[in-house]
Design a protein that fits this description.
5 strands; 16% strand
């Protein structure tokens, strides 16, 4: 797989469509977090990353920078957060995050495969241990046949990848906040699981 500029892009570590269906297809709607709860989740993620000597990078669409903002809210975030790409426009998903153009043409910007490619592109292009990718429909109108509240959150890691499909409810703010919460949870689970699996 290569980006439009010819640079090789690390493929998503798991076959995204299968990963989404293997994880029960659709996760329950995540409640929108308050600012303090979200900050607490971000702090837990930062602590886990620093303890593991790991870093994270983000490619986000519907959240428009909110996920990167949440990750950089705690003091000391620079120890683990490499940066983020806000790829709201479909073509920027290819240009900046390396999502293959044929994939975008075939599936549109909201799909598990695109979320996985965003995560892999963020990890590769920003040089991080973990990449997070989020894409979805925040409303008020459906997009590409996907109903409002459909969100795909993906992670690309050193050994494994994962994609979660969410069906969120509420207004745009609630859907975007729920997406951030789900992405933080996915990353925290992955970091803790990998540390638990490492010898000694």
């Amino acid at each position: 797989m290569s980006a439009p500029d010819g640079r090789p892009i690390a493929p998503a570590p798991a076959a995204p469509a299968q990963a989404a269906s293997a994880q029960a297809g659709s996760a329950p709607a995540a409640p929108a977090q308050t600012g303090s709860a979200q900050a607490g989740s971000a702090q837990a993620v930062l602590d886990a990353l620093v303890a593991a000597g790991a870093t994270v990078a983000v490619a986000e669409s519907l959240t428009g920078g909110l996920l990167t903002a949440a990750l950089t809210e705690p003091a000391g975030a620079s120890k683990a957060v490499r940066g983020g790409l806000v790829v709201y426009a479909t073509e920027l998903k290819a240009i900046l995050a390396g999502v293959p153009v044929p994939l975008l043409d075939a599936e549109g910007p909201v799909s598990p495969d695109v979320a996985a490619a965003l995560a892999a592109g963020a990890r590769d292009r920003l040089g991080a241990t973990y990449g997070l990718g989020v894409t979805g429909v925040a409303g008020p109108d459906p997009q590409g046949g996907r109903p409002v509240g459909t969100v795909f959150v993906a992670l690309a890691g050193p050994e494994h990848g994962a994609v979660r499909e969410l069906s969120l409810t509420g207004d745009r703010a609630a859907i975007r906040a729920g997406t951030v919460a789900a992405a933080l949870d996915l990353l925290l689970d992955a970091v803790r699981r990998r540390e638990a699996e490492l010898p000694g």
